[in-house]
């Protein structure tokens, strides 16, 4: 595991690979059974929250805090809910197949 004091935030982020790596690095306590079921959803929600909160001009500590807060918030969403209820990915927003009506008049050969 990477220690906070040993490397820059950008270098550390480049080396993190799994949801557990991110949670451990940012010292967010987690239940492995929740992460096992919701890992991709947590990471996507973390990305979404981070996009709203991150200020690229902020210093290293402010950026690190923004990352930690976004990840903790994303994880908490799935402690209290499920991936199906949270609908993080586009596929969950898709409705039943759409029916397209084609008027008979448009089928004539011209």
Number of domains: 1
Can you count the beta strands? 0
Secondary-structure element string:
HHHHH
Shape: elongated
Q: How much helicity do the residues have?
A: 55-70%
**Strand percentage:** under 5%
What is the oligomer described by this structure? Answer: single chain
Number of helices: 5
Average predicted local confidence, pLDDT: 80
Gyration radius, rounded: 21 Å
Helix vs. strand class: mainly alpha
Layout of secondary structure:
Elements: H1 9-15, H2 19-25, H3 32-53, H4 60-80, H5 83-86
Q: How would you portray this structure in words?
A:
The protein has five helices and no strands. 55% of the residues lie in helices and 0% in strands. The protein has one domain. α3 crosses α4. The chain has helices at 9-15, 19-25, 32-53, 60-80, 83-86. The N and C termini lie far apart (70 Å). By secondary structure, it is mainly α. It is elongated and about 75 Å long.
Task: Write a brief caption for the model.
This protein has 110 residues and is mainly alpha-helical. It contains five helices and no strands.
Task: Please give a handful of descriptors for the protein shown.
0% strand; 110 residues; single chain
């Amino acid at each position: 595991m990477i220690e906070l004091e040993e490397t820059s935030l950008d270098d550390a982020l480049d080396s993190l690979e799994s949801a557990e790596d991110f949670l451990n690095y940012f010292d967010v306590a987690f239940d492995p059974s929740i992460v096992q079921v919701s890992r991709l959803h947590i990471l996507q929600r973390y990305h979404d929250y981070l996009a709203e909160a991150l200020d690229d001009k902020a210093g290293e500590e402010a950026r690190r805090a923004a990352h930690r807060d976004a990840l903790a918030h994303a994880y908490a969403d799935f402690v209290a809910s499920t991936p199906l209820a949270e609908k993080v990915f586009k596929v969950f927003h898709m409705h039943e197949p759409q029916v397209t009506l084609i008027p008979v008049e448009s089928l004539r050969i011209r």
